[in-house]
Specification:
Strand order of the largest sheet: 17-16-18-19-24-23-22-20-21
Number of domains: 5
CATH architecture of the largest domain: 3-Layer(aba) Sandwich
CATH topology of the largest domain: Rossmann fold
Radius of gyration: 41 Å
CATH class of the largest domain: Alpha Beta
Strand content: 25-35%
Shape: elongated
CATH superfamily of the largest domain: Class I glutamine amidotransferase (GATase) domain
Largest sheet: 9 strands, mixed
Number of helices: 13
Amino acid sequence: MSFTNPLMLIGLSAILIPIIIHLFNFRRYRTVYFSNVKMLEDIQKKTKRASQVQQLIVLALRILGITCLVLACAQPFLRGHGKSAKKGNVISIFVDNSYSMETESKNGSRLYDAVDAAKNIVQSFDFGDDFVLTTQDFSGEESHILNKDQILEMLDGITVSPNSHNFKDIRSFENHTIQASGKENVIHYYISDFQKCNFDLSLLRNDSSAHIGLIPTPAEHLSNVGVDSCWFLTPIFKLNNTVTLIARIHNYGSEEVQKVPVKLHVNDKQKAIAALDIAPNGYAECHLTYRIDEAGPNWGKVSIEDAPITFDDNLYFTYDVTDNSIVSVVCEKEPNRFLAALYGKDSVFTYQPMTYQQINYTQLRQSNVIVLSEVPTVSSGLSDELTKFVNAGGTLLVLPSTKADKSMNDLLQSLGAGQYGNLVKGTLSCKTINTESIYFKGALETQDTRVDMPQTTQHFAITGGANGNELIMTLDDNSPLLVSYPVGAGRVILSAVAASDDYGNAHRHALFFVPLHNIGIMNAVQQKLYNVIGVDQMQQLSLPSDRSDEAIVLRARKGGEEFIPEQRRIGNETTLYFHNQAHTSDWYDIVRGGQVLGTLAFNLNRQESDLSCYDEGELKKMAGELGDHVSVTSADTKNIAKSVNDQLNGKPLWPWFIILSLLCFLAEIALLRFWGKPALNE
């Protein structure tokens, strides 16, 4: 117990007054004359012992009453977690406005309770204090020091946000703003539902320099089912092809859900439907198969129906379907007739042959696949273009040349792929085929060892390269015949032989043509199906060049929301930077000069789907382990301002001492009034 005015304790010397009166009570006796001795029988006599007991009790009550009165004047209190700060306080308040705070509470919604609690906290401090307000938005307004009126105004404008940040990022953002204040005493308040997936409270363990208040917003137990993610089984998007989309549906509740209907819509047409049973706190994957029947940009949606949490019931995605794949073949002199037959006579491909001495760089940048067929040298300009092409997501296929100089291996080394070694003479057969490779998957039902395999009379050794390479075909000596390397967003594929009779019959063999054909139709890596709001901040696109100064605008289809992202163009490659400008789940058309160039999809962060939160009891237990600088107060406390003030400055005890003092004096009066009063016979 501490005292606000400890000098008032000098008043305790006043207890000497009743003591002196008790010790030196020279009371004079009066003579009472009476005529009838019988009256003595009607008087209740007091013994000397009873009189002394009464006087001692009265003395104790007077001493206790005076002591309580003096202590009340000294204003005692139980010390809280706060620290005195001569220069004032800087109060940092975090209000969680993520989607999980939209859930219902006794007073309306968790977000409403959080804002109301924040206002009560602000009202418990002085106008001379500084304030910092942080939400999930991390907006520019939140990076400034506020006064009391400003923070109350900003609290009125808080709305639900699509963003969701972890506790480490929240602490970092608010601490950066706090540094701008000159106040010494820092007080943090976190008002949230404290989702377990986002709040790692162990970060508070070593921060004993400031008082930290945790204010959970209570809500009824809720279950939730949401569409977690989706992906395609194969990355082939060609007209009339059959594809399989896998959608993961997550059950965040503690009870099993049965027959959850899952619907797939593509281009506003229902393509597939399924029903799932999902275990508690588990997920199930739904395979949705359909046929692609429209070229160009396609937009799809996987949807379920689940209440009351609905923001994760729809997952939007997009992909592009092209009529053909552009394959550019760079050769030494004349176009290779075998490659011309493979890519030039198939309507799936747009075949663009050119020599290494006369390269059309405009056509090269528009390609999906580039083939270097027995190119003897790679110029610095071609090397730069190929590096950009592969890193941006293109596929580079290299068929070696016996005339190749050092520039070819220099290019491959800079890309992190393997390099060509010595030319190995001798007849070898293909030993293994990786049927699980995306370039073979589905093309062969079984691999029969009796099947005639491609043979080589000479081949180049392929060595080195970064980790993660994929062997597509190997020879009898276990050396690669066809190998793929991931590079940037694309791939580099090296062949140990060229499409020439000098190397054997591989270039004529169907088993060798299968992967070469699939390399052409699979392009490289499928376009990103969707972006997660608050997580994905950029996307690279291949858009037709435009010399105008028209900026690209992203426009939501449903709500009409639109924004201009930061954009950087290099040739036909455009990189868009979103900077948290998208706020709603939707398809967003890519518009330039009034023309729609494509479509992107944005989805809300699925972290908010998991409603598992720390309750007040768990928070108090953790706060006890973290230290005295951490306290917990429920947001539904009737007088949260008083509770917060008591925790910070200590709980005042003077009202209780006033009451005790009054009780002592009333007891003294009652004692003198009723103890020993003579009872007269009627």
